[in-house]
């Protein structure tokens, strides 16, 4: 007996077992008795809709979606399957998490590649409604079966997969970025702007400054081109379609130069970094700023002030510390990167910042609670974890240099734990090396805590690279 017949057999069996007539079963399901008769008796039988199979399933006492595997044959009963009905069915399967059924339907659909348009439209519908996870199986289907490697549809599908694949594992993120990079320039400009910023962020998290610079330069060039195109659109006589982007254009322009400044900072090219900062300090000249655009303009203005202080501090200008500290107090979201800069500069130039650490003690403890208590659930993004781990590492160096070994041990353990959680292998080794440098100053309970961190390995990342450090604990 075919699956399509089985659905009808289930209904007939239910009618016989409970003594239902078409009329009484119609009342139980909420389906007109004439429709039920046509589904069961008409030759050929009337097709069952997704809504009807849900109502029938409920009336039969089964859980939602229990008959969906059988319903697949119903969808493909005709020589030319109904795209609208299959689309509704797939969306319903996505709502119920029926991935095996979805895969079964997609495999059948791909026997005729004209249905690829339907699959892509379903993916976009799910994605734009916030159902990112549910959309990926459809995008992967498009990516696997698209015949034209330079098609926009393929590039967008690969972009969506790329975005959904970004997680807390920095090494894994870099692999994902490398796989996607081939498709970046095939995207429409509206998607390409965001893709370039995302790729830059991933390499930023891995301290791959040459790659950050490469993609940042591309972002700067493209954002300038788009801004010029938008300007021509507003003053020209011929109508040009307005570019719709995920964020306002002012964001991509400003962010490109902000990242450029960060690259120059990490390359020690502080004067050039100051020049880059000046390019996003005042973005009021950009035409067509709406409310959201003005919000970003003000953010970049504030970041320009903060990053000017950052560069001056790194050049050893300690006279601005009171002003910089006040800026951080007035802008709590800047405390994490700002403190890292101050402590790093103190370590490089040998000045004391005990008063600043005391002033921001509660903020540091707050980050510790928020991040260390949520290491396993993805609550905070990788950048906040990275910044906090960097701060802990710099504080550990500072405290060790000033012979405050208990504080140093506390912070080096925190940095080691978080670096392992986001899979930053080089930084894990740096943290372990710093501990080994001061091992002789550790108390017995600190040695034991270090052993626990190493053996636990935070998903085995530490134990894979620890080498001789574990043996040296004994």
Mean of all residue-level pLDDT scores: 88
**Share of β-strand residues:** under 5%
Order of helices and strands: HHHHHHHHHHHHHHHHHHHHHHHH
Overall body shape: elongated
Q: Structural class, judged by helices and strands?
A: mainly alpha
Contiguous uncertain segments of 5+ residues: 375-380, 458-474
Describe how the helices and strands are arranged.
Layout: H1 3-18, H2 22-29, H3 33-41, H4 50-59, H5 68-75, H6 83-96, H7 99-109, H8 116-128, H9 132-145, H10 152-165, H11 170-184, H12 189-205, H13 209-235, H14 249-266, H15 270-278, H16 291-314, H17 321-330, H18 335-349, H19 354-359, H20 361-372, H21 382-401, H22 405-421, H23 425-437, H24 444-465
Organism: Paenibacillus glacialis
Protein name: DNA-binding protein
InterPro entries: TPR-like_helical_dom_sf
Quick overview of this protein structure:
This protein is mostly helical and 474 residues long. It is built from 24 helices and no strands.
Could you please describe the fold and organization of this structure?
With 474 residues, the chain is an all-alpha fold. The protein has a domain at 351-474. The chain is 72% helix and 0% strand. It has 24 helices and no strands. α15 packs antiparallel against α16 and α18 packs parallel to α21. It is elongated, with a radius of gyration of 30 Å. It starts with a helix and ends in a 9-residue tail after the last helix.
Observed structural traits:
single chain; 474 residues; mainly alpha; elongated
């Amino acid at each position: 007996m075919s699956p399509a017949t089985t659905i009808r057999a289930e209904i007939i069996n239910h009618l016989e077992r409970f003594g239902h007539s078409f009329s009484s079963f119609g009342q139980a399901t909420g389906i007109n008795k004439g429709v039920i008769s046509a589904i069961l008796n008409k030759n050929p039988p009337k097709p069952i809709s997704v809504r009807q199979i849900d109502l029938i399933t409920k009336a039969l006492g089964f859980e939602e979606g229990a008959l969906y595997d059988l319903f697949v044959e119903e969808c493909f009963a005709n020589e030319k399957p109904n795209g609208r009905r299959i689309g509704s069915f797939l969306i319903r399967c996505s709502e119920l998490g029926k991935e095996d059924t979805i895969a079964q339907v997609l495999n059948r659909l791909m026997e005729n590649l004209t249905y690829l348009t339907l699959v892509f439209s379903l993916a976009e519908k799910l994605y734009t409604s916030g159902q990112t996870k549910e959309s990926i199986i459809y995008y992967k289907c498009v990516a696997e079966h698209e015949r034209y490697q330079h098609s926009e549809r393929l590039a967008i599908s690969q972009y969506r997969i790329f975005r959904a694949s970004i997680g807390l594992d920095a090494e894994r993120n870099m692999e994902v970025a490398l796989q996607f990079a081939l498709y970046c320039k095939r995207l429409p400009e509206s998607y390409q702007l965001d893709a370039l910023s995302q790729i830059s962020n991933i390499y930023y998290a891995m301290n791959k400054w040459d790659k950050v610079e490469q993609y940042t330069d591309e972002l700067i060039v493209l954002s300038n081109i788009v801004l010029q195109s938008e300007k021509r659109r507003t003053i020209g006589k011929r109508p040009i379609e307005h570019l719709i982007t995920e964020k306002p254009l002012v964001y991509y322009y400003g962010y490109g130069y902000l990242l450029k400044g960060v690259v120059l900072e990490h390359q020690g090219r502080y004067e050039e970094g100051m020049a880059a900062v000046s390019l996003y300090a005042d973005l009021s000249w950009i035409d067509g700023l709406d409310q959201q655009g003005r919000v970003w303009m003000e953010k970049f203005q504030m970041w320009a002030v903060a990053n000017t202080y950052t560069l001056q501090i790194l050049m050893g200008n300690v006279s601005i510390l009171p002003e910089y500290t006040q800026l951080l107090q007035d802008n709590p979201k800047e405390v994490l990167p700002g403190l890292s800069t101050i402590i790093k500069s103190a370590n490089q130039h040998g000045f004391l910042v005990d008063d600043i650490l005391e002033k921001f003690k509660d903020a540091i403890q707050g980050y510790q609670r928020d991040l260390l208590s949520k290491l396993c659930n993805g609550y905070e993004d990788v950048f906040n974890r990275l910044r906090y781990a960097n701060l802990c590492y710099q504080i550990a160096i500072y405290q060790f240099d000033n012979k405050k070994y208990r504080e140093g041990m506390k912070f080096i353990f925190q940095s080691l734990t978080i670096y392992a959680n986001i899979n930053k292998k080089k930084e894990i080794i740096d943290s372990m090396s710093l501990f080994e440098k001061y091992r002789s100053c550790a108390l017995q309970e600190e040695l034991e805590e270090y052993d626990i961190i190493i053996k636990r390995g935070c998903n085995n990342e530490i134990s894979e690279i620890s080498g001789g450090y574990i043996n040296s604990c004994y």
